[in-house]
């Protein structure tokens, strides 16, 4: 029945009776205007997650419902102005940084390494040339003069011992000089030979002191072990007991040598970069290795393996040629000189590559231990940002490594080294 306004009972006021319902048609389906496209169907529910590999749901899935969550951002890469990223280093960062140290400043690094390598290789080359000449004479049936056994012993082992002593001293000094170069190369700066020597020569007495103290610490237990074995043999012990005692003492000394070498491996970088004395550098190295002994030992052993294989491959052609000439040269003076030159050249080429690599690993291990124990990476990042703003690496970047100058030295709290930025002066 109409109320006079065109509406029917039960309909709201203002709606004509011939209009469709406001929220749908008579069948209850959503109302659409004539000619309008059909409404968009809602998305189907997401499929249930697959559970491969024993029912474990993978963290990220492909497809419209997989991938990263909304708002996720990858962390920005660490700042890398020089040979390493300024963050705690992994094994690959350390080995790559040691190689980049050589490539970033090849004239200075390889030039210094070649001089040190030649000084260490010449005594070995002379001794081996004499031994090869005498072995060649015996092989050809010409015989050797009286007393040749003494000559063999002195030429073979004497030259090797002298070479090891020279290498121990020279490599320690080279590590100090190259560590100074590395301290600048971390920020992308370069150092000339003259500047590196000028910055390091004041630390030469400390480096020599490190050589002497380290040698005493290493050799004193060895001497005591040898004296003990000789005392047991002189007391009439049988061969089996003497051999067993020698094997036990040898294994014990090997473990001791690995432990001491690892603990004191960072003493040379500390002496140069932090300008500490001999005993203070040894104590500082001992402290820095705390909490990372096995990792440091593993990296040092891997470095020795890589360096040994590389040196052998580089020197092998020269060693083979020198050995051939020494055997079949008739023990003449010319053949001995040629043999010595070839062996020395091979040893120099191999060592001039491996010495800076080893020194770089030691220096980067020192930097890594400080970044892990003292949040030193934040100080390096602040300095690198300031240097990028200025457009050059300031010479005062060398002072960054001194804990008495920079705020990120050893302190009661790690956070104490995170608050104060460094600015070059």
Automatic annotation (TrEMBL):
<dbReference type="Pfam" id="PF10110">
    <property type="entry name" value="GPDPase_memb"/>
</dbReference>
<feature type="transmembrane region" description="Helical">
    <location>
        <begin position="161"/>
        <end position="183"/>
    </location>
</feature>
<feature type="compositionally biased region" description="Low complexity">
    <location>
        <begin position="52"/>
        <end position="63"/>
    </location>
</feature>
<feature type="compositionally biased region" description="Pro residues">
    <location>
        <begin position="35"/>
        <end position="51"/>
    </location>
</feature>
<protein>
    <recommendedName>
        <fullName>Glycerophosphoryl diester phosphodiesterase membrane domain-containing protein</fullName>
    </recommendedName>
</protein>
<keyword id="KW-0812">Transmembrane</keyword>
<keyword id="KW-0472">Membrane</keyword>
<feature type="compositionally biased region" description="Polar residues">
    <location>
        <begin position="8"/>
        <end position="18"/>
    </location>
</feature>
<feature type="transmembrane region" description="Helical">
    <location>
        <begin position="239"/>
        <end position="272"/>
    </location>
</feature>
<feature type="region of interest" description="Disordered">
    <location>
        <begin position="402"/>
        <end position="425"/>
    </location>
</feature>
<feature type="transmembrane region" description="Helical">
    <location>
        <begin position="204"/>
        <end position="233"/>
    </location>
</feature>
<feature type="region of interest" description="Disordered">
    <location>
        <begin position="1"/>
        <end position="72"/>
    </location>
</feature>
<feature type="transmembrane region" description="Helical">
    <location>
        <begin position="293"/>
        <end position="320"/>
    </location>
</feature>
<feature type="transmembrane region" description="Helical">
    <location>
        <begin position="340"/>
        <end position="366"/>
    </location>
</feature>
<feature type="transmembrane region" description="Helical">
    <location>
        <begin position="109"/>
        <end position="131"/>
    </location>
</feature>
<dbReference type="InterPro" id="IPR018476">
    <property type="entry name" value="GlyceroP-diester-Pdiesterase_M"/>
</dbReference>
<feature type="domain" description="Glycerophosphoryl diester phosphodiesterase membrane">
    <location>
        <begin position="245"/>
        <end position="353"/>
    </location>
</feature>
<keyword id="KW-1133">Transmembrane helix</keyword>
